[in-house]
Write a structure and sequence with these properties.
The protein has a 5-stranded parallel beta sheet, with helices on both faces. The protein has a 5-stranded antiparallel beta sheet with strand order 2-13-7-11-10. The chain has helices at 3-22, 26-35, 43-71, 81-84, 104-112, 136-147, 237-240, 323-332, 360-376, 403-417, 425-429, 434-440, 453-484, and strands spanning 119-126, 153-154, 167-170, 175-178, 193-196, 211-217, 226-232, 241-247, 250-253, 258-263, 266-272, 279-285, 292-298, 302-309, 335-341, 382-385, 391-394, 397-400, 421-423. It is elongated and about 125 Å long. By secondary structure, the chain is α+β, with helices and mostly antiparallel strands. The protein has 3 domains: 1-40; 72-149 and 301-486, Rossmann fold; 157-300, Jelly Rolls (Sandwich). It is built from 13 helices and 19 strands. Helices cover 36% and strands 21% of the residues. Helix 9 links the parallel strand 15 and strand 16. The two termini are 65 Å apart.
């Protein structure tokens, strides 16, 4: 290219460049220059931008940490140091190979209670060791004090010789269908028994029909209580089932206060109880399928713990229950946790020598029962309370029944295999010959098998302390896990 042409070309490029820059804003110009690295970046401004971004990130993280801390904050009152400082701690035991706590669903519900108040029902199944609300009552009291809630829970309609907080009188014309007396599978419900009309009246029409009653008296009820009922779906509540509440000399007819929920042959009915009532009376028309599966007195939110004692039982309480029916019982009654406490009836009472083979039947039964429950209600955690010490007379002294060790090990093994928590009550009591020591200070009965009321109260406190200790560890671990993920 000739020299003058080269000169003209450079002049043209310069003109085009100047025209282009003339239409750029100062910001665009700086970005353009920076992109071509014609000007060095302002180090002071860059540092200011970096600090600004870092400060924003720190504020965001601090805000997230504060939210996590608030979510996982624990009220100091749940530790109840005044009542529990002298109570021994026996920790829960469970399989941690999957990194999850078996009680995670229950603990997460507890955490949400303050922001999302719901009713959380705990079912405490057991043998004669928990009759008359023993163990359950002190555990319930501590749970309600810590997390809210009130009321006794499911009424002991099927406990013989009940001597508790109130009097229950069931008219003699009711029939009782019990899982223990019936070999067939059926719709027994969460109480394993139900009231039903006598067969002779099963086909009678509404005209001149007989009535069956359930009367609950000597009630010491506060405020905010409800009566909940699980009834057969055929019950026409407005005509068949009448509820009255008594306060002093005044009797009031109650009307259903919450819309009923129906499921698989079942209906859940709720009545608001007047404050400070002293008695409740119910009456049912004796027509076909007018069955009562459960009655419960409890609050609308918080914790309620039901005592479901079955005297003489080995713990075979789930397998004969229709799975769908039991599942719906649990769902309608907001069951969030099952406590399973059996074992003393599996032992030979005379302390005769036994071998592991002698308890193969018990292990098979327990495997079936816990497996069936876990399949039926997979989201409901289970705490298996191990057998307590049981003594037999060996000469002039009382010694631990040797079979206790077999049953205890079977319970631990089967509990873990089915994703349950195991709580070692035998160890919590002090281990070998501990029942003899408990009896010497009137914590154990003269039969060296059952707890006294004072001893049962202590066991309830130990159970609560074990649960709260595990709950505290869970909360700390979850909080650290979420903070580390930020």
């Amino acid at each position: 290219m000739k020299p003058y042409k080269s000169f003209l070309f450079l002049v043209l490029v310069l003109i085009v460049t100047l025209v282009t820059f003339a239409f750029l804003t100062p910001e665009d110009f700086e970005k353009y220059i920076s992109s071509w690295q014609l000007l060095p970046e302002n180090p002071i401004k860059k540092e200011q931008q970096r600090k600004s971004l870092l400060l924003a990130e720190l504020k965001k993280k601090d805000s997230a940490i504060a939210a996590i801390n608030a979510q996982y904050s624990l009220d100091p009152k749940i530790f109840n140091q005044q009542n529990l400082s002298t109570v021994p701690l026996e920790p829960f035991f469970y399989d941690t190979s999957d990194g999850k706590n078996p009680l995670i669903n229950f603990y997460q519900d507890l955490l949400r209670l303050q922001q999302n108040p719901i009713l959380m029902r705990i079912l405490h199944y057991g043998d004669s060791q928990i009759e008359n609300d023993r163990i359950t009552s002190s555990f319930r009291s501590l749970m309600q004090e810590a997390f809210g809630g009130n009321g006794h829970g499911v009424l002991p309609l099927f406990q013989s010789d009940y001597k508790g907080y109130f009097d229950i009188k069931i008219s003699s014309n009711w029939s009782v269908m019990s899982m223990r007396s019936n070999m067939r599978r059926g719709n027994y419900g969460l109480c394993n028994s139900y009231l039903y009309p006598p067969a002779i009246n099963a086909i009678i029409t509404q005209k001149n029909v007989d009535m069956g009653t359930v009367a609950i008296s000597r009630i010491s009820a506060g405020k905010g209580l409800f009566l909940e009922a699980l009834l057969h779906e055929d019950v026409w509540v407005e005509k068949d089932f009448r509820v009255t509440a008594q306060k002093g000399t005044t009797t009031q007819n109650l009307t259903q206060s919450v819309k009923s929920e129906n499921s698989f042959g079942l209906q859940h009915i709720v009545w608001k109880l007047p404050d400070s009532i002293t008695a409740i009376n119910t009456s049912m028309s004796f027509l076909k399928n007018r069955n009562i599966y459960a009655l419960s007195i409890n609050g609308k939110t918080g914790i309620v713990v039901d005592n479901l004692a079955i005297r003489g039982s080995l713990g075979d309480i789930f397998l004969k229950n229709n799975r769908r029916f039991l599942m719906d019982n649990y769902a309608l009654m907001n069951v969030r946790l099952v406590v399973y406490e059996f074992g003393i009836n599996a032992l030979p009472q005379d302390g005769r020598p036994a071998t592991e083979k002698d308890f193969e039947f018990y292990e098979k039964m327990l495997q079936q029962e816990l497996g069936y429950l876990r399949i039926t209600a997979p989201d409901v955690p289970v705490i298996v309370i191990g057998i307590s010490d049981r003594s037999y007379k060996n000469g002039l002294s009382w010694r631990t029944n040797p079979s206790v060790y077999y049953v205890r090990e079977i319970q631990r093994k089967v509990a873990l295999e089915n994703g349950c928590v195991f709580w070692d009550l035998f160890n919590a009591m002090g281990g070998e010959n501990s029942m003899q020591e408990w009896a010497s200070v009137k914590l154990g009965g003269k039969d060296f098998v059952h707890f006294t009321d004072k001893g049962a109260e202590l066991v309830g406190k130990m159970l609560y302390k074990a649960l709260i200790d595990d709950y505290r560890k869970f909360v700390i671990k979850q909080k650290q896990k979420e903070i580390s993920a930020l």
